[in-house]
## 1
Amino acid sequence: MNERAHIDVFIDGLSRYFNYLATELEEPNSSLEIGAPYLLSTSQPMGLDFTGMISVSGNNLGYIFVSANSALLKRILLSYGEVDLSDMPKKDLIGEIANTLAGNARRRLGADFHISTPRVFDGGLEPSKYQLTSRCYVLPFRWKSSKAELIISIRER
């Protein structure tokens, strides 16, 4: 599968996640805005306030990162009726989002698309600290005017 096909799988998963969220919360007007994917240089920092990372192995190698600003995570938590808006629920949520998107991709890419449990970080990441096995694509998106990024660095074995 080529890089564009991988990106399309994640765009579809991202759309389905936020459409489900809007339906679940009975907020049909809370649309997801997906920007154009772009390449990230390994010298550029990546990510926003909170980042969830999934390692990929099997027939593919690499990483999936989901990073969001605090406002987006706060909006989702409030939508679910969460009263604790400290960093810990935000970290749990970004890890859950990363895991859900990776799991949805696994359904499309097959059982040999192995995913790890999520790791969660405060803030962005330095790409040079990770052995990125392929080009790193950033897919910026907004939900309820709050921004986030889906960062994909995957190649076939």
## 2
Amino acid sequence: MEVGKVTKNDHAHSSHNFDGWRTQFARTRRWHARVQKVRPECARDGMCDDFEDYIYAFFQNCHHLAKWLSSSKAVLHSEVQKLVASHEELQLCRDICNGTKHMIITKPSVDADFYTFRECDWDHIPSLEDRPFAAETFMVRAAGRKHDMFELADCCMEIWYEFLKAHGLDATADG
């Protein structure tokens, strides 16, 4: 092969997809681990832009897992569609993914006009050790309801673990 020449099958050896859906699932798990790692920091110090980026990256990767599962033929596309249709959490995940990636959602699953915000617990009485935003959480409002972003991420992962297990796919292997 000539140097610099790309053949049709070179994509099969790329590190971004070398193990099909497992590669994307491992990436989603790593983003979820990052979100879990910053969660106590957020509770202690308040949200920062980096924490928001981690959360958005998680939801983008989490939503794309559906396409990876059906594209790799690990699960029928109709089964993945049925899963997403039956879980508002995954539908909201899709909206967060598309809203943070494309800015405008043309075909929302839950709410094209969802918004994310930081919410303070005004009942929390700060001590001298508390930072100004120690009682802050990161939320999303969609279709008139509020959701804690960290809890939503945990729920989405749990749904995927259960789905993979139900379809006989190993969700525990590191990728």
## 3
Amino acid sequence: MHGSFSCLSCSGIGRLTALGAVSLIIALCLFVVPAGAHSPAGMSLAYNETAGEFVVTITHQVDDPATHYVREVQVSVDGQTVKTIPYTSQPSATTFAYSYPLQVQAGNSVKVDASCIQGGSITRTLVVPGSAGSGPRRAGSAGAHDTGSCHDDTRP
């Protein structure tokens, strides 16, 4: 009788161990990011005061821009979203630019967030300088923040 009890005990532990292993595998599968997924690598912002145009240049190197692309660009001015533009592909496999009509004033903070279809995003902010001239204003890596699935790089 004791041997039979011992067998039932071992069988129960085996079932629990197997259930735990299956649960762990399922959990890992849910949290795995596709191997090709990555955040856009870079983004620069430029504002042309004369034209009232905001230019966003994005670097997002992919194998196939029809299936792996920047899916959305969101533009906010002083914390208020003013444009959310969805995309179904990107114009090039490396670096490309999007232009948006946008009227802003000196001192406005313009934040742009570009999100990848496979996960990750990059964010840049440009504080519009005073109108000493009427040419383009640029923001690149200085004073900008990146967030992404493969890196979290914050620069002062």
## 4
Amino acid sequence: MAEERPVPAPGLFQRVFKDPEFRARAAFLRRVALFQDLGARDTGHLIQSLLEKTYADGELLFDEGDIGRALFIVERGSVEIFKHGTEGAPQILASAGPGDFFGEMALLEELPRSAAAIARSETTVYLLYRTRLFGLIQSRPRVGVMILNQLARLLSARLRATSRRLVSNDPELVGANE
């Protein structure tokens, strides 16, 4: 079973300006659509709220029906998001690779997951738990609001794209990934 560990976080000045590993992690996160509006200092505060976890090839990250508590950001590797099919065969909904994120609804509500996720290679993810996001909102309101604002924009865009695919009645587009 994969073990969660806090993302190392020395003093902010040292992290942002001197630690090459931290700078690389911060640069990676600023390329993720959800965090693209964050500056260096804001990204530093975000990193303090993340946990890092590595999954083995074939390891389940979460199952359909599990209570969602965290957003997953793929740092390396690949993940398939799927639903359990009625005849036992999984129905693949999406694939996620480096820079992609999924499970974002867990940041808004703790409800059962609507799909499952499995690592398709050794995969490292950053987890942003709902409780940690709320802690960030309390300690750094501006950062939390920026993340939630971007999350709302991305969810809105995904909903519009899903609506277009469903209206198109094209079976190829209904399960398509954006």
